[in-house]
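Try it yourself: sequence plus iron/sulfur cluster, in.
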Amino acid sequence: MAPPILSDESDYQQSDTYINNVPLPGVQYMWQVTVNEEQCKGCNECVDGCPGEVYELLKNKATPVNSEECHGCFTCVELCEEDAITVEDK
Ligand code: SF4
Ligand code: SF4
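Structure, out:
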């Protein structure tokens, strides 16, 4: 199943493939997670806040080491005060 095309968080929460920001079992989804290293200040907020444990802090930069676990909740984007994170559906 292709990932849903979602334009904003309200669409996301209304999607029939997600309930309360959690994807339904068996739903295939693919998200591209990118961190701008120059903007990242290594505050660890995204590392701690990501429910998918997508990030590790490597050399004081958030690094998406488990992008396949991303389910597009945008928590990290909201937490990052440096606007260093981009999450896009592939
Ligand atoms: S929240 Fe932003 S600034 Fe903080 S570690 Fe993550 S990407 Fe870097
Ligand atoms: S969108 Fe959600 S699951 Fe994906 S990396 Fe950000 S916090 Fe983690």
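One thing you can check immediately is this: DSSP finds three helices and six strands in the chain.
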